[in-house]
Amino acid sequence: MCSESFAIRVSGLNKSFDIFQRPADRLKQPVVNRFRSLFGLSPVCYAHSYHALKEISFTVRRGETVGIIGRNGSGKSTLLQVICGILAPLSGQVEVKGRVAALLELGSGFNPDFTGRENVYMNAAILGLDKTQIDRRFDGIAAFADIGEFMDQPVGTYSSGMYVRLAFSVAAHVDADILVIDEALAVGDVFFTQKCMRFLRQFQKTGTLLFVSHDSGAVINLCERAIWLDQGRLREIGPARQVCENYLASQYTDSDETSFDVGLASTELPDAHDEKTEGDFPASLPRSRDLSFARDMRMDFLNRTTLRNDIEVFAFSEPERQFGTSKVAILDVCLTDIQGTRLNWVIGGEEVVLTVEVRVNVPIKQMVVGFFFKDRLGQTLFGDNTYFSCYDHPVSACPGEVLEARFPFRMPILRKGVYTVDAAVADGTYENHVQLQWAYDAFVLESHSDSLSTGLVGIPFGAIDLKTKEV
């Protein structure tokens, strides 16, 4: 790699901290060792060393967006602080090219006794702007933060959301080359979060972004690559889809208890950035033998209907990417019509049924089946599970039984491109359940044409008109 092509380069990075059992030991150690040295005695240590980062090496290219994921305590925040120069490494090297603006711990870099206005000038000056430049940009910073009269109040009186508003606003107006964000968007209202996401989308066109979040959906949505840290070590680095899927699988493997979301997960199901352009289709994916017949049958319907969203459905095959136990097996996932006939072709707006067939290998007390419908970037468009439908009559199963879950819905209008469906099976309740099996990309759909005016998906509306209202 050319030496000028990187924004951040980390080589063999190690960082450790001394951990004292009691606060008094921190003071006692230098005092005791001072006296011991007077008598020629060897020093004593009241602390044990905690290795937060262990031999971390990676490179972030100029203009790239990279996400960092991992459990609490895995070293994510420590890594960012070393990159930003807040902490010094124990060993290794960190090279950063360009101006860095960072949003780390809540309120970091702010003096709580200073007003918001004073902190703006102080932070912007630290990031390299002179007073004239700050004066020129202050109105824009204040408008973006939108905290009103609190701009002239001490920052110590701010709520967590106001902290983030002001800190993000400063970072957005200093013309940084590299933006480092550590869970800063986890607080604050949805409107400000959306404003920040719009800024980040624009910033990605010219700048380098290093983004830490527990929201795998946000990492997939924003990032080209992801770095997975585990107990201070670099566990995996690669495409956001691959890394996030492996991270989520590890979460379920290491912990039997999880909490429900739409498709049986506590976080949005991760998928991937696909380097293919919209509409491309992986040649390795199986196509139905009845595809040409189904196409011919439905072309007449397509020509007669106002629903112009032509969607090809590819047959279920044994998923290459799945995790779970051998307690259940997902035998089939498919789309059918209301009568149960398997579909190879569907038009956006048609009534369909998503069917998941599961074979049980051990006794199951309370089975729950769910699915996620995702776009090519892995963003979850919609999903559901059987928990609430079966709340009053939980479904148990015995070894050898085969169960079928049916989810009827009207197919939304899909933009041109490739979509996938994931299926999952769990045993338990909404608050406490065990993930038994999760199949990524159980089957694939390709939308060949659409009539969408806006949005990720379209709702099949009835007749839309505009006319003068009689008064």
Summed up:
With about 475 residues, this protein is an alpha+beta fold.
Could you explain the architecture of this structure?
By secondary structure, the chain is of the alpha+beta class. It folds into 2 domains: 197 residues, Rossmann fold (3-Layer(aba) Sandwich), CATH 3.40.50.300; 163 residues, abc- transporter (atp binding component) like domain (Coagulation Factor XIII, Chain A, domain 1). It contains 9 helices and 22 strands. Strand 6, helix 6 and strand 7 form a beta-alpha-beta unit. The protein is globular and about 90 Å long. The N and C termini lie far apart (71 Å). 38% of the residues are buried. About 11% of the residues have low confidence.
CATH fold-level topology of the largest domain: Rossmann fold
Q: How many angstroms does the end-to-end distance come to?
A: 71 Å
Low-confidence stretches: 256-307
SS element count, helices:
9
Q: Give the overall average pLDDT.
A: 80
| Whole-number tally of structural domains | 2
Structural class: alpha+beta
Query: Strand percentage, roughly?
Result: 25-35%
Helix fraction?
A: 10-25%
CATH domain class name of the largest domain: Alpha Beta
